[in-house]
Write a structure and sequence with these properties.
alpha+beta, 434 Repressor (Amino-terminal Domain), 2 domains, five-stranded antiparallel sheet, 5 strands, elongated
């Protein structure tokens, strides 16, 4: 299975996938008895949007040209799309030209300004990374390298969280919320594929993951999309055990779809104590390199917290 064939997606593919997720009751339509397939029928979507059934069928078949913003907005409402899904719908309806053709946008590089790398490195007490929408980790600080992955020791192509999630045999042990992490990771890649379906690095990545992971293939076929914003992430580390952190995501100015992700722990929490413990191994550039497997989990003893403390 080639990356090119797997990454290929169309407006019609997405419309079919999304209408299968909406029941008549979700949009105020009366029940019509047993259905052969889940979700809305084509004529029901057309009625909700205010289109002829023939035009909507041609949309799904890719024979209707470029739909107007008004039609796309109406489809977004009818199919109950969130902000990420709506943005993806627009990307698919306005596909970029293939690189090398007139007016085709160049595939942007992933070179970070040195000052941005210094900003990430200078964050001392909590993990931080800069990623692109292919899930490549472009910059990291010491705590991120200790807790998430040993980025300095990885080859550049292996500094990719999608590869870590789906192809690393230790991923389920490290990422306690692996199922959610897998789903959102695929959703981020789907968003990127809608923006840049001809990005050769993205095509290669999706092809590699499709060949290497049945779970990835299943999730990719679902057309789920996701924009990384904020949430909770759970890690397991051999020296400190389970660590639950909150994360916030910030768009890096001047770099399209480059994100600064910062993970934090509540003050006084066991997670903060765990980060302080891990940070003690990276407190100075002269400190010896930290190798997690050389420490036994009992080395770390988080303070016991009583109720109300």
């Amino acid at each position: 299975m080639s990356g090119t064939s797997v990454i290929a997606s169309s407006l019609g593919d997405y419309l079919r996938a999304r209408r299968a997720l909406v029941s008549p009751g979700d949009v105020g339509l009366p029940p019509t008895g047993r259905r052969r397939v889940p979700g809305l029928r084509r004529e029901e979507v057309a009625e909700l949007v205010g289109l002829s059934t023939d035009y909507y069928v041609r949309l799904e078949q890719g024979r209707a040209g470029h739909p107007s913003d008004e039609v796309l907005d109406a489809l977004s409402r009818a199919l109950r799309l969130g902000s990420a899904e709506r943005a993806h719908l627009y990307d698919l309806a306005r596909p970029p030209r293939r690189a090398g053709t007139p007016t085709a946008p160049a595939v942007r590089g992933d070179v970070l300004r040195s000052a941005l790398r210094q900003v990430v490195t200078a964050i001392p007490t909590t993990p931080a990374v800069i990623m692109n929408d292919r899930n490549d980790v472009l910059a990291w600080n010491h705590l991120a390298a200790v807790l998430i992955a040993d980025f300095p020791q990885l080859a550049p192509r292996e500094r990719n969280m999608a590869r870590r999630i789906f192809l690393d045999p230790d991923a389920r042990r490290i990422h306690l919320d692996w199922d959610e992490a897998a789903r959102t990771t695929v959703g981020i890649l789907r968003m990127a594929a809608g923006r840049r379906p001809h990005d050769p690095e993205l095509v290669r990545l999706v092809g590699e993951l499709s060949l290497g992971s049945e779970t990835f293939r299943t999730l990719w076929a679902g057309h789920h999309v996701h924009e990384k914003t904020h949430g909770t992430k759970r890690f397991r580390h051999p020296a400190v055990g389970d660590v639950t952190l909150a994360y916030e995501t910030f768009q890096v100015p001047g770099a399209a779809h480059h994100l600064l992700v910062i993970y934090t722990a509540p003050p006084g929490s066991p997670a903060e104590e765990a980060l302080n413990f891990l940070g003690s191994f990276t407190a100075s550039p002269s400190a010896p390199a930290f190798r997690p497997r050389t420490l036994h989990p009992r080395t770390f003893h988080p303070r016991t917290r009583t109720e109300g403390s």
